[in-house]
Amino acid sequence: MTNPSTHSRLHPKTILIVDDHAMFAETLSQFIQTVYNETVILVVNTAAEAREELSRVRIDVALIDLELADCSGLTLLSYLSHMSDAPAAIIVSMHLEAPWIERALKAGAVGYVAKDSRPAEVITAIDSVLRGKKYLSRSVAQSFAENALRVPLDGKELHKALSQREFEIFLQIAKGKTLKLISLDLNLSAKTVSVHKHNIFKKTGIHSAAEIARYCLENHLLEGTFRSSKAI
Questions:
Q1: Alpha carbons 14 and 41: distance in angstroms, whole number
Q2: Among candidate residues 28, 37, 25, 39, the one with its CA nearest the CA of residue 67
Q3: Cα separation of 88 and 73, whole Å?
Q4: Does residue 44 sit in helix, strand or coil?
Q5: Alpha-carbon distance 181 to 92, whole Å?
């Protein structure tokens, strides 16, 4: 059912959905189209495809998953932050852990919706960001508040000392990716990734990929989305 106040709703010209779960993305696209029937809705499955669309079309709102096939959605948010006419970015993700929410908002997201929310919540988020307001769905805000009060097992959260780029590489290492694959995914030189890895070890005091993976699992940074990667 559409909102009775649709007559006052701002209608975006173009919405971009970035999600590597094709069925979810298409279903969400179809629902959004019933609300914004004159809006062009583009669906892509990778960050690379998203960058291509952004280079050729003016996007008003981008709905981005944090776990993409080619890189983290955080990387795409970083790319958007350097655009002069960047779309309003809303994260639609199963990641409800505080570190992910914090990083996404810090990287430029203006909205964050749990992926298992009702589709209408995405519309509410779009309406909010089009009016210049930030939006967190209720489950995200609740999870954020609860997780923010959680005391880490060792009394400290080592990953908070990392920069945005270091955090992305930290997660990639935890997933078992080689430096070569990380450099390809993040479009960085192998030397740059190696320097970041050195800094990660220095800042966290963790000195192996296995320890990083264990730390990420214990701190729920990979919960529900751990994917293995083939070494190159």
A1: 6
A2: 25
A3: 14
A4: strand
A5: 25
3-class SS at 186? coil
DSSP characters over 79-131: HHTT-TTPPEEEEEES--SHHHHHHHHHTT-SEEEETTS-HHHHHHHHHHHHT
Q: What is the enclosing helix (H) or strand (E) of 31?
A: helix 22-35
Q: Output the CA–CA distances (angstroms, integers) from residue 184 to 126, 180, 199, 203, in the order listed.
A: 32, 6, 19, 24
What residues have CB less than 8 Å from 100, skipping those under 6 apart? 66, 93, 221
CA separation for the pair 199, 9 (Å, rounded): 47
The dihedral through the CA atoms of 3, 45, 13, 77 has a sign that is positive
pLDDT in tens, 65-115: 998 878 788 889 989 988 989 999 999 998 887 778 888 998 999 999 999
Name the strand (E) or helix (H) holding 63: strand 61-64
Banded pLDDT at 4 (limits 50, 70, 90): very low
Domains defined for the chain, CATH in brackets: 6-148 (3.40.50.2300), 158-218 (1.10.10.10)
20, 118, 151 from 198: Cα distances, Å? 31, 43, 27
Q: How far apart are CA 178 and CA 11, in angstroms?
A: 44
Measured distance CA(230)–CA(143) in Å, rounded:
33
Can you tell me the mean pLDDT for 161-190?
Answer: 86
